Amino acid sequence: MAARHSCDLCDGTDFAPIGQKDRRGRPLLTEVCKTCGLVSHALLPTEQELVAYYAGEYRRDYHGEYAPSAHRVVREWNRGRGLVQKLHEELRQNDSILEIGSGIGCTVINFALAGYSACGLEPHEGFRRYGSEKLHADVRPGVLDDLIADAQYDFILLVHALEHFAHPTKALTKIHALLRPGGRLYVEVPNFAAPHAAPGKQFHFAHIYNFTPATLRMLGAKTGFRVQRAYTAPFDKNIGLLLSRAAPSRLVVEGLSYAQTMAALKRYSTLSYHLRPMYLLDRLVNAARQFVQRCSCERQLTAILAQCDEFAARAQQDRPITPVRRAA
Ligand SMILES: [Zn+2]
Fold first, then answer.
1. How far is the CA of 14 from the centre of ligand 1 (A)?
2. Does the predicted model carry a pTM greater than 0.85?
3. Total count of domains within the chain
């Protein structure tokens, strides 16, 4: 771990502490940049530490699993299918799609089932092997830094991944270089401006950055992306942006960004968070949904695996393989 010298978004050096512990009560110093409102860890892991963490400990540490459970596969499958439904009207049939941090590969295989050429990159061996062997998803081992930046993709997915990078400006700059002219990036991160966690529970060791819509928009513009479509309502748990590859521009800090971050931080006390009118209803609906999913997940998983086996058998002879080009 190394102390940060300046803000990854605006290069500012004026930070205020806003958290001392992560959501499990472990020490984690979190700060906000007083210039642009970006929230991040005060100490950043090195690239080597991150590579080692995501290749090994992360899934067990935060998901409690080395290989995915049936419940996780079904949940991720539904999320992948939802992304295809959300994004298919933005795609051309021959687009080359890459997902960075593709996990089990449920999104990759759902795009493949919909007829697209899709592949993924995932550092964790247990999840990647499950995706390759059970789902027949085209998921390769590796991280973003492994790829050659030579404009070979039409569409890149970065779903709940950007917040894990030590240097998001560098990550989006690399993704910009991986996209062909006219290429698009769909990025989705947890929405710090939404009440997705109770006060004192917002911070997460693996989430090095916490984005608001404003800080994510600014990061996109700075690294050469134009917002084509925003999928986020103000209180959504996640921010989803469809970004188009454009020319990088000088950062213009949105004047209200810092105030918006601080307002999000102070919106609720622990009591008022739990007394929100929708809180109990949300919890009940989620608990009921999870109960139904857990009861039926083995049966659903059997159907998913059969669908993937059938797809692989059909495609075995003639499915084009999208090459992932690596730095030497
Ligand atoms: Zn900043």
1. 8
2. yes
3. 1
